Amino acid sequence: MQTISRILPDEAATLAAGESIGRLLGTQQGSTLRLHVDLVGDLGAGKTTVVRGVLRGLGYTGRVKSPTYPLLENYRVGDLNLAHFDLYRLERPEAFIEAGFDESFVGSGVRFVEWPAQAKPYLPAADWRLTLSETPQEGRLMSIEALSSVGAALLADGTL
Asked: Of 102, 14, 118, 9, which is closest to residue 56 (Cα–Cα)?
């Protein structure tokens, strides 16, 4: 499958990368768009900053909170539903099902999942794996790997 990568020297660049993703998603049919993105990276790598940028790129003007404690924050932008999960504090994989989080993956919408390994094997397959990792230079390396035909078609658009 296809992968794209970009160096993000600072938080502003991370936010801008998220905005680019949001603008790309905004070109899709919001009521039928279905995308699951696994967000991978160390604590403080910028995963929530990427999601904040995505929401800005989609035109969301409200406050974007980290889902660290509630584990899930939902947003509505036009006719698009966006769910942002942070599963770092999920005590065991079965708690994903017990909390009813699996129901958030039914139907259209965009789902961003931080710490997806915490819910394996209950988490549905992702369309993208977005990884933020340290670089020898300052900043982070952002890589987006397409894991499905839907994910590959979005990356093939070439606007990221």
From this structure: 14
Contact 106, 83 (CB under 8 A): no
Token pair, residue 51, equals: 């999601």
CA distances to 8, 109, 117, 120 from 11, in Å: 8, 26, 25, 30
| Superfamily for the 3-156 domain | P-loop containing nucleotide triphosphate hydrolases (3.40.50.300)
pLDDT digits (tens, 9 = 90+) for 8-28: 999 999 999 999 999 999 888
Residues 51-86: pLDDT tens digits?
Answer: 999 999 999 998 888 877 789 999 999 889 999 999
Q: Are 40 and 130 in contact (CB under 8 A)?
A: yes
123 in Cβ contact with 116 (< 8 Å): yes
CB atoms within 10 A of CB 103: 9
